[in-house]
Amino acid sequence: MSDSEHNARAWGHVVDFFDHERATSTQVYASEWFFLKDLLREGISVLDVGCAQGGFAGVLAENLKDFSYTGIDISPEMITRAKARHPSRAFHCVNESDWSAIAGRRFDLVLVLGILHLHETWRDTIARAWSHTAGTLLMDLREHEGPTIEDKTVSSFRMDFGGDATGACVRLPYVIVNSAEALAVVRRSSDGASRLSHYGYLHPVSGAAMTPMDKVMTNVWCVQR
Length: 225
Known about the structure:
By secondary structure, this protein is of the alpha/beta class.
């Protein structure tokens, strides 16, 4: 089984978690809202990468009357529920390395929130998301001053936070990026960007993470063309 297939199955263990989480403006993290509040405008087109049940479609609807929203996710269970919850929005189940469902499309705002630190090909995801960005890319990383940690045997994330006990045996990588490398990757992946900004704060790692770090910098990056 490939990493992408494993990761897609892993997210199936936490589908229920998103029934009531990450679906309203009050559930948007402060580091995300710092940028997002100023990016919303009527008529905006939004791509949500790793959309889960499409919670950000609800967030946008609380703040805008007119917008288009497309969500993509690697979990078929997530996409099934997203379509049921938001039938007027577009959703696609994709492979981590194959976004052909949205080939050639670019969006005013691309969101990649809550997933980059939980899969192996996070660098490729940033570059792929940027290729679909017409205006602004908003994404988050977990960072620290030490060397980048990507080895799943050293730093991992248990997929049992959704209440599925079998998820405790299922692990995703919990990637913690050296802050200097994070800047280098963002700059290298966003050719043509006119502005890079980031905002974050030191925060305890998730209780589902098994990692040598007690705290990480939860950093949200705003990359604009």
